[in-house]
Write a structure and sequence with these properties.
The protein is built from 19 helices and no strands. With 486 residues, it is an all-alpha fold. The protein is globular, with a radius of gyration of 22 Å.
């Protein structure tokens, strides 16, 4: 007898475990796959967009800072809007959250594709990329908010939710690895030591004639991950609902719910601490390639260092999940500190062996910094529900407002950092940069992320942790969540 087709098996398994606290392997796997495309795209953007804008599109550094800041602010502003609209949306045959994910998929793929397109005009390129980056970030938000809020509709069991989160983070790390690897390998011919000859003056411009075509191909490959992964998410994951329990009404409005969530102390502490930590990770990622290209002799090792960071992060995520369960979430946060001395070491001693050690340790720290907030957020939501006993929609408010604040902090950090490059005299497309630019890049990959990480960890360690509900309370919360959000 032939085995059942894989999509049918996924749907059947999803239906079988929907009434219990246990999540099947296939459901966790498909849930994790849904987060891959945003991470693939975000990884390519984090490591290569700034380099593309400066050295291929040849936009002045001041305009690049506006592109990055505008895009991040657009994504941040879309978070409360997404939470508001999702909070007011009705359940369909596919659920309440899934239609938002599916509806955004084709548009976000197109926005990403044209983000790497080099228009024939040069005068308005800054406006072109600002518009497309703002559009991409807004669409990515409307994709990510319902997807992450879906965690609360998978199961009422906190341990199973943590396990599903670990699957998601592991596969998102794989997506991050795929994005940087695929994009980096395709565009590697556009950058490297061969583009600069020894007899070139610092101000001369050298751009590979194939750079535009290479970036165009890389964009098409990454954009295809959106429809593929969204289809697998739809086939394998179904939102929980409890048809035996009647709905309890519309619950709190968005603004009233937002006012309550931001006054919840465990949530406020979590958000403020990861404002600094996530901004530090974004600065480290964004300026690593520029540092290797212009502030050291590591331009031929860029792809190897990026792969080392991401492979280390992917492989260490299951280990961090075990540490999380064994020693607690707050103790696991100390793993983020590992990045601090090594980031300073790379800025001080930019040698090849040191660079790869730093890349490996940075991957370990990045993994726990990405896993921890998404593992702690469900506990904060449960703690809030136990104290206030409010109705539907608050889960999306928690997730959307968290992403809003972290994106806003990242926008400010990247915008100010890129402006500092402009003040230092960065020349777009130039083969060599001035000594002031070199020093600025060393500060941006050393001192800046170090200080932000230490501030964030100090905030996170202060005060009590949220209470994880008992099994009985978990089932009660799960039943309420299933019909109020369904």
């Amino acid at each position: 007898q032939l085995p059942e087709p894989w999509p049918h098996l996924l749907i059947k398994t999803s239906l079988e475990d929907s009434g219990t606290g246990h999540l099947s392997f296939y459901r966790k796997l498909c849930y994790g796959i849904g987060g891959v495309p945003n991470q693939v795209a975000s990884s390519a953007i984090a490591f290569y967009l700034q380099l593309f804008l400066l050295d291929v599109a040849q936009i002045p550094a001041a305009q690049v800072s506006l592109v990055l800041f505008g895009g991040k602010v657009s994504g941040a502003a879309a978070d409360p809007l997404a939470g508001f609209l999702i909070n007011r949306s009705r359940r369909t045959g596919s659920g309440r959250l899934m239609p938002w994910v599916l509806g955004c998929t084709p548009f976000i793929a197109l926005a990403y594709f044209f983000l790497w397109f080099l228009p024939p005009f040069s005068a308005l390129r800054g406006l072109w990329y600002t518009t497309l980056y703002c559009l991409f970030q807004a669409l990515a938000t409307f994709f990510q908010v319902p997807y992450t809020a879906l965690t609360m509709l998978l199961t009422p069991n906190p341990k199973e939710r943590d396990s599903a989160t670990a699957y998601r983070m592991t596969l998102e790390m794989v997506g991050t690895l795929m994005g940087a690897t695929v994009h980096g390998l395709i565009v590697s011919g556009a950058h490297g030591s061969h583009r600069c000859k020894e007899d070139m003056l610092p101000g001369e411009v050298a751009v590979s004639p194939n750079a535009t075509r290479l970036y165009f191909i890389a964009a098409a490959v990454v954009a295809l991950t959106y429809p593929v992964c969204s289809t697998l998410l739809y086939l394998g994951v179904k939102e929980q609902s409890d048809p035996s329990t009647p709905a309890s009404g519309q619950g709190l409005g968005f603004l009233a719910g937002l006012g309550l969530t931001v006054r919840h102390r465990p949530y406020l502490k979590l958000v403020i601490s990861f404002l600094f930590i996530s901004a530090a990770v974004q600065v480290e990622q964004s300026y690593l390639v520029l540092f290797c290209t212009h502030a050291s002799q590591l331009q031929d090792h860029v792809q190897g260092m990026v792969l080392t960071i991401l492979v280390s992060a992917v492989l260490s995520t299951p280990m961090w999940e075990w540490v999380l369960q064994r020693f607690g979430k707050r103790m696991s946060a100390l793993g983020i500190c590992a990045m601090v001395p090594f980031a300073i070491l790379l800025a001080a001693v930019p040698m090849v062996p040191v660079a790869y050690v730093v890349a490996f340790v940075s991957g370990l720290s990045i993994a726990v910094s990405l896993l921890l907030p998404w593992s702690m957020l469900p506990d904060v939501v449960d703690d809030f529900q136990l104290q206030h006993q409010h109705g539907p929609g608050l889960e999306t408010i928690f997730y959307s407002s968290y992403v809003f604040f972290t994106k806003l902090s990242g926008a400010g950090a990247l915008g100010i950092s890129t402006l500092s490059l402009d003040f230092a005299g960065y020349e777009s497309g130039a083969c060599r940069q001035s000594e002031q630019v070199v020093v600025t890049l060393k500060v941006l990959i050393g001192a800046v992320p170090t200080s932000m990480i230490l501030i964030g960890l100090c905030i996170l360690m202060v005060g009590p942790t949220p209470k994880v509900p008992s099994r009985a309370n978990s089932r009660s919360l799960g039943r309420r969540t299933s019909y109020t959000l369904a």
